[in-house]
Write a structure and sequence with these properties.
300 residues, alpha+beta, TATA-Binding Protein, 4-stranded antiparallel beta sheet, globular
Length: 300
């Protein structure tokens, strides 16, 4: 690390040796993950080459998976003794806090029943509505007006660009369990640099839609087939500013929705068939990645 201000040395190009990494330093996150991953590798866990935050350990019919997000971890598996062992080891090295059965993680609420698992962001949605003053607003049934296409128009610029960006950013995080908001959020995120009153009006409609369905989420049933089903689609040159098409896809593992996206294409398609093939190519890459990830979970 560079010499701090006030420290002088007669030796040119001198640096300080960093003995302990602290929060806020440039190398802090790298050093933290290196120590954590080395500790897991020492216990026989294998880091996935397709998702570097995923560590797995298998022994015959027993399987344990560990997912990392900065310093928050999720443990899952069918070997309770291994789960207890890894928790004791991590506590001895890092002094962890065991929160028990997974119920809440990074704003995601997890509910279990004899039928399956439900994921939603109900608390996050209510917090968004409360902070924006839409908690008691009149709800609407759809996130966007039918056949409405947002574009850079000549309407009055919205007076608070920072607020618009903050709200769109919070909507982006809400799409982790709300695929019904993906297209509307994709449309709104195109005008972060110069939003107008019409764009803000479209944003408020999305908030009123969330008010109507605050607890919408994803359901993963217990009885389902282990088979990937892919659906993709595209419009053709409906962006009035660039004439680019928008791709969309969703992936199902049996009856469970596990991946989705709505994104503007990088090129201008010269036909509707070309736009469809671009959407299909993007979806095929996602399917290929999911097959690699399933292999890490020992699912052929």
């Amino acid at each position: 690390m560079s010499l701090p201000q006030g420290v002088f040395s007669t030796i040119p190009n001198m640096v300080c040796k960093l003995n302990k990494s602290l929060y806020g330093l440039k190398q802090a996150s790298r050093q933290w993950f290196a120590k954590l991953s080395n500790s897991l590798n020492f216990l026989g866990y294998k880091q996935s080459s397709h998702d570097h935050s995923l560590f797995t350990k298998s022994n015959h019919c027993k399987f344990t998976a560990l997912l990392i997000y900065v310093d928050d971890l999720i443990l899952a598996g069918n070997d309770q003794s291994e789960i207890d062992s890894i928790k004791l080891h991590l506590d001895s090295v890092f002094n962890i806090k065991d929160l028990g059965t997974l119920k809440y993680f990074l704003g995601l609420e997890v509910a279990r029943s004899h039928q399956g698992i439900t994921l939603c962001q109900r608390k996050y949605a209510f917090g968004l509505l409360s902070n924006t003053g839409f908690l008691y607003s009149k709800p609407v049934m759809t996130p966007m007006v039918k056949n409405a296409h947002l574009h850079q128009d000549n309407s009055t610029p919205y007076h608070n660009h920072v607020l618009y960006r903050q709200l769109v950013g919070r909507l982006l995080y809400l799409t982790n369990t709300r695929p019904d908001l993906s297209f509307a959020t994709q449309q709104l995120s195109q005008f972060m640099d110069n939003p107008t009153t019409k764009h803000h009006q479209a944003l408020t409609r999305v908030l009123r839609y969330i008010k109507h369905y605050p607890g919408h989420g994803l359901f993963y049933p217990i009885d389902t087939t282990i088979q990937i089903n892919e659906f993709s689609d595209s419009d053709w040159a409906l962006c009035l500013d660039t004439r680019k098409s928008i791709s969309g896809y969703c992936m199902f593992l049996g009856n469970s929705l596990i991946s989705w996206k709505s994104k503007k294409q990088n090129i201008v398609s010269r036909s509707s068939s070309e736009a469809e093939y671009c959407a299909l190519a993007s979806a095929s890459c996602e399917v290929q990645w999911l097959t690699y990830l399933l292999r890490d979970f020992k699912v052929p």
